[in-house]
Specification:
Structural class: mainly alpha
Largest sheet: none
Helix content: 25-40%
Number of helices: 5
Distance between the termini: 38 Å
Order of helices and strands: HHHHH
Length: 157
């Protein structure tokens, strides 16, 4: 359990934040009512396209993708440790990106440990993802994230 020992900071599990209304699920593009001034400090270059997994998926991964698709693109990948959840999820993302035909796709990966975030970034690179590592020192990623959000919201990917 998280200790919440930092004054002025409350740690809330992601599912609780969603259930309590702090987060909202969105389908389609994210568009703010008020567009911020365009950030200029950092340039964001989205991938041209996501590429399929360079190897062959295992049968259980193909089944998971099929079931997720049959459920209308909803659900969770309940797979054992080391069974390829990351590759399965990124294979789904690659298919979604291709189906969008050039429109923006933002993928948010939330992981409980920094080494898992780094693993997702490494595997995502094999799919052509340009990741923004939003972990640790906010000063290293805040401007880049703001630029990417602006690009997505304005249709510039």
């Amino acid at each position: 359990m998280l200790a919440n020992k930092t004054e002025g900071l409350e740690i809330v599990p992601l599912l609780n934040a969603y259930r309590d209304g702090w987060l909202e699920a969105r389908l389609g593009p994210v568009i703010d009512d008020e567009q911020p001034a365009e950030p200029t400090a950092v340039r964001y270059e989205p991938p041209e396209r996501l590429v399929p997994f360079p190897g062959e998926l295992f049968e259980h991964q193909r089944v998971a993708i099929s079931r997720w698709s049959e459920a209308g693109g909803r659900g969770m990948l309940a797979m054992a440790t080391g069974s390829g959840k990351t590759i399965t999820a990124l294979s789904i993302a690659a298919r979604l990106y291709d189906a969008l035909e050039g429109r923006s796709l933002a993928i948010l990966i939330v992981a409980p440990f920094i080494h898992l975030v780094d693993q997702w970034i490494d595997v995502g690179a094999a799919f052509g993802l340009r990741s923004i590592r939003c972990a640790e020192n906010e000063g290293h990623w805040r401007d880049e994230l703001a630029t990417a959000i602006f690009a997505t919201n304005s249709g510039r990917h």
